[in-house]
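To whoever is on call:

I kicked off a structure prediction for a single chain this morning and the downstream step that reads the tokens threw a length-mismatch warning. I double-checked the sequence; it's 89 residues and nothing unusual in it as far as I can see. Pasting both halves so you can look.
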Amino acid sequence: MCDNGQGSIYKATLSCFLPSAEKATGRAVVVCPGGAYWIVAMQHEGTDWAEYFNQQGIACFVLKYRLPHGNRQLPIGDAMAAMKMVRDS
């Protein structure tokens, strides 16, 4: 993950939060935190939700996507790649 301190993310990252083996259902969710394409609200709209999903037995993947800076395909492409990666694993 690279961030220049001004909200410019140069490389998307995907963080994985897995439920305990006893609770695991085999389901997963990809969380794409909001931020109006200005920031990515990673904590309160991203990682804070991992515990909730894990308690339900659902694996939680939190995407830190690239901000568009005029190219709206960047975050959409990052989300599509994340979903493919989760499905393929």
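Update from on-call: the warning came from a stale cache, not from the record. Cleared it. Sanity check on the structure: DSSP finds two helices and five strands in the chain.
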